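for the record, two folds in this file. i put them one after another cuz i was lazy. first one right below, seq on top, structure tokens after. the second one comes after a little note so u can tell where it starts
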Amino acid sequence: MKPTPAILAALGLSCLTSCAARADEPAKGVKRIPAVFSGGHETDPADRGRPVVLVAGGLGVKPEVFREAFKQVRPAPAGTRPTRERERANKAVLLKALGPYGVTNERLDEVSDHYRYIPGRGELWTARPAVAFALVRDGKVVGFEIEDAGAGYSSKPKATVPGFPAEGVEVELAFGKDLEANGSIKAVRLPKAATK
């Protein structure tokens, strides 16, 4: 999809073509260059590799709420599976803490399974990389267009544009109950100094 006056207006940019231009016409003089995202899958050291922000988002609670609930859980030692008895006890603890927030047994299972992974095997939880383009005019990046917001980002990825300085590009994430969009890129913005 090419940038149009409507897209550029949504990005806070001035109309780069005649404002009477058809919506499906590309903006004159604007090139689209693929942005590169790196990282974005870091976790808080206190969470011991668990993507708590994603699990919490999928459950519809704040990360602090899930962390507090998880304090009472007794995980199995690394590299082992918990006994059935321990699994039941851990789930009961979580449901007692999360139930008041509307979290059901079924939803807890669904979200937990979605983000289950074994880091020792080099695995990553379910994630989809984002696709975005830098909008370049007169040799300068003037904005970004997100084509696929991706999912499964637990921390802000770094956004760069090959061949262009992109220091301070800000990436904003969105979390929510829709697992296909949880941990997606909500916005990519230029640093304020670059837009002046």
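(here's the note) second protein begins now
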Amino acid sequence: MEFLPRLWFLVGSTAAGKTALSVELARFLGAEILSCDSVQVYRGADIGSGKITPGEMANIPHHGLDLCGPDAAFDVRQYAEYASIIVKQMQEKRKNLLVVGGAGFYLKSFFTPVSDSIIVPENVRREVRQLYERAGLAGLQREIAAYGPTDFNHSDWHNPRRLLNILGKQRVVGQSQEKVKQNFMQKICPLTPFPRRVILLERDSESLNRRIERRVEAMLRGGLVDEVKFLGKMCLPLANAIGYREVRNYLDGGQKMTPEELKRTIVAATLRLVKKQKMWFRKQIPIHCSANLDARSANESFDFIRSFCKNSGLWN
């Protein structure tokens, strides 16, 4: 019988405590670890992403780290392709995989398709960009609507990057945005055959807030500002990542800040992210087990998660 690796997911908001638990859980599950973090894919982005250190890995193989340089954009499509390769490797090695992280769209790629296979030639992309430069957002909206029905939400309908993307595809296939989306939703996620279970780690709000503040303080003490200086030119996704964005503004002098104000700015941005993450996890991916790490001791929490795994229907 063909071996299908079990895909376990340890997810949760920033600073929930995923990394500390992941190595022990991977050992228990007979699994290797795949990072699911959109910043940890960049080489050199270590401190600001909270990247696990070689010493912390405890000889558990880790994947998804240091996949590209800081000046090379990396997106969810590339991550999904990489993750599929790692899953196939686990199949060949007859090992399970523990996916650890909190990057929403990266996580979603394990449950839904992320690419509609419509290839937009560069000349079409250029023409669409020129339309936007000439006619602005309204020009994009008019042409998109001319193809037929749309079902954009308000945010996407006013997002130039989103509209540029969809209009390019419409020019290639000649279909309405609604039809393009329907065709995409009918695609099957490549990882559908593999058994999957998601464990969500949670914290009480006050506890999580304190952990975030301590985390930011540790990053700044550990050399986050020097790390940003060393990275130099960064691609847009990395440059806009929390911590890196605020330090860049601090160094550029665009925002006059003291070191204490820098810390508070990063903390505030992280808290906003955490609020979005909490809502996202509950709505966008299936959650099979929730564990509040403040409700139990560390040992009790691990026993609770271990019991779930044994009774999940994937244990053999």
